[in-house]
Specification:
- The protein is 88% helix and 0% strand.
- The protein is an all-alpha fold.
- The longest helix is centred in the last third of the chain and has 46 residues.
- The mean pLDDT is 95.
């Protein structure tokens, strides 16, 4: 019971931080909503653990904790892939900026 209270408090803090970042325009409202839905779903899983078992049984998985683990790993793979794409885009933009700057410096020295 104590662990549930601690985890729910952490999830509440995560939700508050999510909307703080949205107000600061670090993330969009759409992203904040998606993260908030994830935090709420996790809260339901923590407060009512039998719900994950029912959902797992519906999908043919034996235990709710296994289902949560599979979903978490899948979500992490998607987020890592998204992060890879963002970093690759930033790398390409940085390369282009450095190239332009180097060409400007070359023109100035000529």
């Amino acid at each position: 019971m104590l662990i549930q209270v601690i985890l729910l408090a952490i999830l509440f803090g995560a939700c508050v931080m999510t909307w703080k970042r949205a107000r600061e325009r670090v993330i969009s409202r759409r992203e904040a909503l998606a993260w908030s839905l994830l935090w709420i779903a996790a809260g339901f899983g923590i407060a009512l653990p039998w719900t994950t078992t029912r959902i797992a049984n519906f999908f043919g998985v034996g235990r709710g904790s296994d289902f949560v683990l599979y979903g978490s790993v899948l979500l992490l793979f998607v987020l890592v892939f998204k992060l890879f794409i963002v970093l690759d885009t930033l790398d390409r933009k940085l390369t282009e900026i450095v190239r332009r700057d180097a060409l400007k410096e070359l023109d100035k020295s000529s």
